[in-house]
Amino acid sequence: MTTDTPPTLWDSLPALRDRLADANGLLFCTDFDGTLAGIEINPDAPALGEENRVALERLRDHDRVDVAVISGRELADLRERVAIDGIDYAGNHGLELHRDGESTTHPIARRRRRDLDTIVADIEERLDDTDCFVEDKSVSATVHYRTAPERESEVHDAVETAVERVAEGGFELSTGKEIVELTPTVAWDKGDAVSLLVADHDGWLPIYIGDDTTDEAAFRELSEIGLGVHVGTDSETAADYRIDDPDSVTRFLDWLADEGLAALDSRGAA
Ligand SMILES: O=P(O)(O)OC[C@H]1O[C@H](O[C@H]2O[C@H](CO)[C@@H](O)[C@H](O)[C@H]2O)[C@H](O)[C@@H](O)[C@@H]1O
């Protein structure tokens, strides 16, 4: 993993234009929270802004562009929030996929649902008298402590204890922005979801854009073959480039739907 802050994407747009002009097509993959929508206190609040919707639809409508939204959110929640037809979706960090109109869930994740229900109930009981709460995402769960940051270690302890009690080794913990994520122990992440899509797009340029720790797997997957863009100023990222915040993502989407598509169309024009 690169430890230097990657260069800003804005200085590299001429190079990106060249890569698009050489590519068979564009596979545009994006995270949702902190990328397409800003971070909010209430996890129910984030919505896809109109400018982003228009740009993503313009990309979708190009015959040599495919779009995928890849999120830690539950697939049903993500699809409802984004609500763009004709694109691919991955929910629960890739454990749920919606491709070509069909939804699938990783079989091991499906089998662990009952254990997860018990774990969620246990965590809820342990955190009952706090402001922390559990977002039950059917095959994974997220414990939110944004409104009680002083409870961070208490949340970790509660999740660890609940997993040990119910299904030791069956679930793993990861951290995100003021959250602890609890996912079934399965060798499958956002990087694998991206790699599955890349396999169907020979000679296309894959781009992945995201802001959080689970997006790093996708950046690593694309390090040799595509382009990763980290949203934020963290230095520890495997992404090739960075941009500041979700507003910058909107500007980039606008550029891509305009100049990026023009570059793609210029292939063979000279
Ligand atoms: O992969 P993503 O699309 O980035 O999803 C990651 C998690 O995002 C959500 O939590 C984050 O956003 C919330 C709303 O802005 C915020 O309140 C929370 O503190 C953030 O961590 C979502 O609720 C989780 O399920 C996703 O896993």
From TrEMBL:
<dbReference type="InterPro" id="IPR044651">
    <property type="entry name" value="OTSB-like"/>
</dbReference>
<comment type="similarity">
    <text>Belongs to the trehalose phosphatase family.</text>
</comment>
<dbReference type="GO" id="GO:0005992">
    <property type="term" value="P:trehalose biosynthetic process"/>
</dbReference>
<dbReference type="InterPro" id="IPR003337">
    <property type="entry name" value="Trehalose_PPase"/>
</dbReference>
<comment type="pathway">
    <text>Glycan biosynthesis; trehalose biosynthesis.</text>
</comment>
<dbReference type="GO" id="GO:0004805">
    <property type="term" value="F:trehalose-phosphatase activity"/>
</dbReference>
<dbReference type="Pfam" id="PF02358">
    <property type="entry name" value="Trehalose_PPase"/>
</dbReference>
<dbReference type="InterPro" id="IPR023214">
    <property type="entry name" value="HAD_sf"/>
</dbReference>
<dbReference type="GO" id="GO:0046872">
    <property type="term" value="F:metal ion binding"/>
</dbReference>
<comment type="function">
    <text>Removes the phosphate from trehalose 6-phosphate to produce free trehalose.</text>
</comment>
<protein>
    <recommendedName>
        <fullName>Trehalose 6-phosphate phosphatase</fullName>
        <ecNumber>3.1.3.12</ecNumber>
    </recommendedName>
</protein>
<dbReference type="InterPro" id="IPR036412">
    <property type="entry name" value="HAD-like_sf"/>
</dbReference>
<dbReference type="InterPro" id="IPR006379">
    <property type="entry name" value="HAD-SF_hydro_IIB"/>
</dbReference>
<keyword id="KW-0378">Hydrolase</keyword>
<keyword id="KW-0479">Metal-binding</keyword>
<keyword id="KW-0460">Magnesium</keyword>
